[in-house]
Amino acid sequence: MKIQIRLRAPNGQQRLEVDDTSPLSDLLKLIEEKTELKKFSLKYGYPLKTLDNPPETPVNTLNLRGENIVVAPLESSIPNTETQVKVAQEEKKPFVPKGIEPDETSLEWPERGGYMVLRVMPDDNSCMFTALGGALGISNPSELLRQQVAQYIFEHPLEYDKAILGDEPARYTGRMLQSDTWGGAIELSILSAIYDLEISSIDVKSLRVDRFGEGKSERVIILYSGIHYDRIAFALDLSMPVEVDVTKWRTDDDEVLEKARQLAQQLQRMHYYTDTTDFVIKCEICNWIGQGTKQAAAHEKETGHGRFGEMQIE
């Protein structure tokens, strides 16, 4: 009989199939072939624990069926940093270790052997879709998620009518399908229903947690800083690439949400938020200037323009 195992490694996510009577050494060899790593450790379960059984252990005794196994490269199998820096200098590019974003912030979590990490999203008006899509393992998610939201609105006309959307559904979805239109609470509630999970959005300024899809069994966590969304993830080590982040948790794991709030509180002290009640905003399409999100929403409704930026007043 075959055992299906999901693998998360630096080179992406894969699904493996192994005979349940095989020894663990066969699985290790298969993982080595798939990941091209010579030395690594394996993490599995919830909370994550190390798979360190003897190589001759039969796979069917390890209870790995349907598990997500995280492949953590050991130091000797990671490319030499000096070599990477030299290559970057020759190419006249800044050196950034793979998987580490220059402006990410983290909070150590010793009890679980890793870090809660802020994964900063591009400031391209699709940050909410990118943050959520990455947590779901979707590559280039903006277009797909926007289409799914629009389709859901059309399929649920009584639930998402003009009164809820603030505009005619056809016009609302037409704007939402454009890559320069922001996503927000309505889109989060719809995507929660589509993917059957709770989306917990932590507001940096207030530390309030808005939960979309309460009652679900799984949760993802995003962070809202006033006019921007980022993703919160768990990393075993800050040198590991984002592809092996843990981004889904059980909704009964209150410790995860509390640790995420602590990270948000740390960001709050750094003033990592925009006060949307009085900030000056500019429409990047027609150069209209207003104050606060209410005026921005009114301008978007009137003109259909959904691309804004904060103006810095000297």
TrEMBL record:
Q: Which UniProt keywords apply?
A: Cytoplasm, Hydrolase, Metal-binding, Protease, Thiol protease, Ubl conjugation pathway, Zinc, Zinc-finger
Q: Just give the chief location class.
A: cytoplasm
Q: What is its EC number?
A: 3.4.19.12
GO BP terms: namely:
endoplasmic reticulum unfolded protein response; ERAD pathway; protein deubiquitination
Question: GO molecular function, one example?
Answer: zinc ion binding
UniProt catalytic activity: Thiol-dependent hydrolysis of ester, thioester, amide, peptide and isopeptide bonds formed by the C-terminal Gly of ubiquitin (a 76-residue protein attached to proteins as an intracellular targeting signal)
Highest taxon, organism lineage: Eukaryota
Q: Gene3D superfamilies from the xrefs?
A: 3.90.70.80, Phosphatidylinositol 3-kinase Catalytic Subunit, Chain A, domain 1 (3.10.20.90)
Q: Is Protease a UniProt keyword of this protein?
A: yes
Record-linked InterPro entries: OTU1_Ubl (IPR048857), OTU_dom (IPR003323), Papain-like_cys_pep_sf (IPR038765), Znf-C2H2_OTU1-like_C (IPR057766)
| Record field: transmembrane | none
GO CC annotation terms, alphabetical = cytosol; nucleus
Q: Where is the OTU domain?
A: 116-235
| Localization annotation | Cytoplasm
Q: What class of enzyme is it?
A: hydrolase
This molecule's function is given as: Hydrolase that can remove conjugated ubiquitin from proteins and may therefore play an important regulatory role at the level of protein turnover by preventing degradation.
Protein name per the record: Ubiquitin thioesterase OTU
Biological source species = Diplogelasinospora grovesii
